[in-house]
Predict the 3D structure of the following.
Amino acid sequence: MTRDRDSKRQQLSEEVASYVRELIISGKVQPGEFLRMEPIAEAVGVSNTPVREGLLSLSSEGFIELVPRRGFVVTSFSKQDVRDLFWVQAQLGGELAARAAIKITSEQLTGLETIAKQQEEAIEAGDEDEMVEYGHAFHRQINLAADSPRLALLLRSVVKQLPNRFYLSIEGRAAATREEHPLILEALRRRSSRMARSLMEQHILDSADHLIETLEERGLWKEDQTAS
């Protein structure tokens, strides 16, 4: 019973962290702005306890800072921060792809081919939700095939530092996905670790540039643009 309660509490705090990350990265709250717990609790539908726990989690990630006797203040989030997050993802994702090229089974490869085909059909149909769903499934299958659960957990801990909806935008890049996923799949078919690593790293790094463009369009770094 205690374990279930702790699990539920952790889930609520993660929902808070995800909600506030999106506020920060979308520019709805600005660097230097203090976060009030009550509006966050009301928006997420939780009590103040998971809000505080979620904010403490975000402070460990560097998104906010706890100022004694004043509360949590938003820290700056730069283009370089985005690039750094994706650089780490590229290193971990590239290593997982390289391992998958060696360890992937015939059944897993067939499953991956099916996912790639389903994503192509979703692109043809213009179904963005399915494009995103199969894009995530494609990467999950590769990470599973790598048979390196601890490394995959490390990657997940980095990935969660950006809100899901921004990854939806990234995985919805139909033109890039059409070109890049089949190339990664072919590297896995050939059992080429070097090719799989290189292609996966570049696929992820290109996503950083795409996300930065998206955030610039949403005005996240308006001051930087004004200064330039």
About this structure: Strands lie at 34-35, 64-67, 71-74. The two ends are 57 Å apart (CA to CA). The chain has a mean pLDDT of 87.
